Amino acid sequence: MIDPSFDSLVASLLARLGGPGPVLALLAALLLGIFGLLSARRSQARQRAEAAMAELRFTELLKAQTEMQGRVAAMAEVFGAKQSETNQAINTRLDGLTQRLGQSISEQTRATHENLRRLQERLAVIDTAQTNIQSLAKDVVGLQAILSNKQTRGAFGQSRMETIIADALPSGAYQFQAQLSNGVRPDCTIRMPNGQPPLVVDAKFPLEAWNAMSDGRSPEAAKVAAQQFRRDMEIHIRDIAEKYLLTGETQDTAFLFVPSESIFASIHENFEAVVQKAHRARIVIVSPSLLMLSVQVLQALLKDQRMREQAHVIQGEVVRLMDDLTRLDDRVRKLHGHFTSAQKDVDLILTSTEKLARRGARIGELEFEAISVPSPQAETTVESRSGQLRLRIVDED
C-alpha cells in the first residue's frame, strides 16, 4: 500500500521538473518503489504491533475469562450449597406441612363423620317429630270434627273439665251429673268444706257463634257473628244463674268452664260487657288453668277440714304417746339403777381378783431352806428327808 503523502511528493517533483521525462520517470519509479517498500514495512510493523497488542489483549481476556470461570465456579459452589440447604429446608417444611395437612385432614374427617352422625341423629329426631306432627294433624282434624258437632263438642268440654277435677280432688269430693231439687243436672258439683253447699261447674260453651266470628270472613259478617256470640253468652249466663244457683242447696257462685285459654283471653279482651254481666250474675268464667288453680285451693281447704276433723284423734294419740314416753323413762331409769348396781358388783369382783392375784404372786415367791431360822412371826414347818421346808405366811389386806 502506497502512502498518499508519497504520491503527493512525486506529483510535486514532476511538476517542478517540467513534466515527466524518461530519467525522471525512472527516478520517480525508483523513488516510488522505495517509498512503497518503506510504507509496506511501516505497515507490517504497525500490523505486528497491532497483532502483539491484540495478543496481549487476548491474553488479558483469557486471564479475565479464567478468573471469571473461577468466580463462576465459586459462585456455582456457593449457589449449589445454598440450593442444597434451601432444598433441605423446603423438604423439611414440606414434610411438616404434609404431616400437619394429614393431621388436619384426619381431624376434619373425624369432625365430618361426627357431624354426619349428629346430622343423622337429628334427621332421625326430625323424622320422629314429623311422624308426631302427622299424628297430631290427624288428632287436630279429629278435634275439628268433634268441635263441629254440638253434642260432641259439649262432651269434649265436659270430658276435659272432668279430667281436671278428677286429677286434683279425691273421689268423694265431687260428683258428675248430680240431680238438684229442681230436676236439672249440672255437669259437676264440688263438695265444699264445713258442710257448705256444693259448687256448681258448667262445661257447656256456645262455640258456633265463636267459630263463625273466627272464620275470617268479611268485617260485616264478623260483626254479626260477634253480636250473636254476645247474645249466646248472655243467654247461657242467665240459664246458669236460673238453674244452678239455688239458695241453700248450691253456692251463690258458679263456674262457667271455657275449654280453651285463647277463647278465655279473647272473651276478656273483646267482650268486657259479657264478663261484667257474668260477675253481676255471680258466674265466674274460668279457663282450664284457672279451674285447676281453683280446684287446688279447694283441695287445700278440704285437706285442712279433714285435719281439723281428725284433730281430737291426733290429740288422743299424742296423749298416749306421752304415756308411752313416761313409761319408757321409768324403765330406762330402772335399767340405769341395775347397771349402777352391777357396776359396783363388778368393782368388788375386780378388788377380789386383785387380792387373789397378789396372793398367787406371793405363793410363787416361796423360799425353800435347809435350816430353820426362828422368827417372831408365825411359821409352819414341814419335815422332809432333805431338811425342813419353811412356809412363811404374811397376812396383808
Automatic annotation (TrEMBL):
The chain crosses the membrane at residues 20-38. The keyword Cytoplasm does not apply. It holds the Pfam family RmuC. Keywords: Coiled coil, DNA recombination, Membrane, Transmembrane, Transmembrane helix. It comes from the Bacteria. The keyword Protein biosynthesis does not apply. Involved in DNA recombination. Belongs to the RmuC family. This is DNA recombination protein RmuC homolog. It comes from Shinella curvata. The gene is rmuC.
